Amino acid sequence: MRVGSKEVKDQMKNHLKSLVLTAANIEQIVEKVGVDQIMDQLIERTYNVFVEFSDQESIMPIRSGFNYTEPKVGLIEWMPIRDVTHEEILMKMVAYHPDNPKDYQLPTILSTIATYDTRTGHLKAIMDGVLPTALRTGAASAVASKLFGHPESRVLGLIGCGAQSITQLHALSRLFKFEKIMYYDSDAPTMSSFENRAAFLNLGIAFHGSSIDEIVASSDILCTATSVGVNEGPLFSNIQPKDHLHVNAVGSDFPGKIELPKALLLKSYVSPDLPEQAAIEGECQQLDAKDVGRDIISCLKMANQLEHLKQESTVFDSTGMALEDQIVADLFLLHAAEMNIGEYIYLENTNLEEKNPYSFLLKLKH
Ligand SMILES: NC(=O)c1ccc[n+]([C@@H]2O[C@H](COP(=O)([O-])OP(=O)(O)OC[C@H]3O[C@@H](n4cnc5c(N)ncnc54)[C@H](O)[C@@H]3O)[C@@H](O)[C@H]2O)c1
């Protein structure tokens, strides 16, 4: 069909509804598919998409946004990615407000994900991004841990026991046979409720509330996912970890906000997700470019040459990529289509005459 022909125009008009996947829809999909299955699918897809990633087919600028200290400390950012092959742009709007749990009983991270057709600009779909963000952040750490972590890792350390820690624990426990989970949170109620919040995973592993020092000294793999304040890090210093410690540094994603001591970074192979972004807001902001390793996607592509890193000290500097949002959005859209979940609505005004925004008023008169 020729662009501009009546058939193409009719087809376009017929497809101009937008799919809405609410939080309830996302939950419904997770319930139907199974939470372990969703995580397994996501880990597998994250691995495959990373390995096959080509910057000719996907354009991913670093995120941008507003950060502020009034009325609350927080930020709202936009994270875009263009999929050239599928004529689509995905944009996640993500907000970080660390006082949310305490002040409003809301998650620290709120977000929505939208996809657009690059032929027309039409909004194809919009969905909840809160659970998908937690899931995809866990999946990315799992992929990085498989690449860098010691295969016989038995002790998982978690510093920060909020929303992300649950999916870090879930994702990593799908790939490693942990015997002990050591955890710490600076907030007492969060610390005391952690084991209960994680209980539904039925991991059959011993949980130990521990000090940060004990965790760092004993862990084979460590996930840091805290809301530590700007200029309040690092979370620890002068602790001798195991030689093969792998860290997923998840919480450092803001200028001045760091979780790991520079000394640990300097003795580790540090792989960022998006190097330009990590240099501004990740652990990499503490490092000169010469001290930063290859990005995680490049590392995965040459995994067979990096086997030795499993025995060495490594850090995945995870600041969050729109590519991960695209992977999780694609998975939920696929399940939604198969299960007929979600609602198509006319959100954009595509019924008016294309060169008369007031045409609806004229129609009323006739
Ligand atoms: N890398 C990514 O892709 C990605 C994705 C989502 C969230 N994040 C980041 O992960 C972090 C955690 O997010 P969340 O949704 O779990 O937030 P959350 O508020 O649910 O949990 C954060 C926890 O960190 C604890 N904490 C703060 N300072 C601490 C300290 N010094 N020591 C120990 N614990 C401390 C808090 O008490 C809180 O329980 C945030 O910084 C967020 O921006 C990163």
Q: What about the largest sheet?
A: 8 strands, mixed
The helix/strand order is HEHHEEEEHEEHEHEHEHEEHEHHEHEH
Q: Poorly predicted ranges (pLDDT <50, ≥5 residues)?
A: none
- Counting DSSP H or I runs of 4 or more residues, the number of helices is 13
Mean pLDDT: 95
The CATH fourth-level homologous superfamily of the largest domain = NAD(P)-binding Rossmann-like Domain
Ligand kinds: nicotinamide-adenine-dinucleotide
Q: Which CATH architecture of the largest domain is right?
A: 3-Layer(aba) Sandwich
Structural class: alpha/beta
Query: How many structurally independent domains?
Result: 2
What is the CATH top level name of the largest domain?
Answer: Alpha Beta
The total of beta strands comes to 15
**N/C terminus separation:** 34 Å
> CATH topology of the largest domain, which one?
Rossmann fold
Spatial shape: globular
Q: What percent of residues adopt helix (DSSP H or I)?
A: 25-40%
What proportion of the residues form beta strands (DSSP E)?
15-25%
C-alpha Rg (nearest Å): 22 Å
Care to give the gist of this entry?
The chain has 366 residues and is an alpha/beta fold.
Give keywords.
15 strands; ornithine cyclodeaminase, domain 1; 7-stranded parallel beta sheet; 366 residues; alpha/beta; Rossmann fold; globular; binds nicotinamide-adenine-dinucleotide
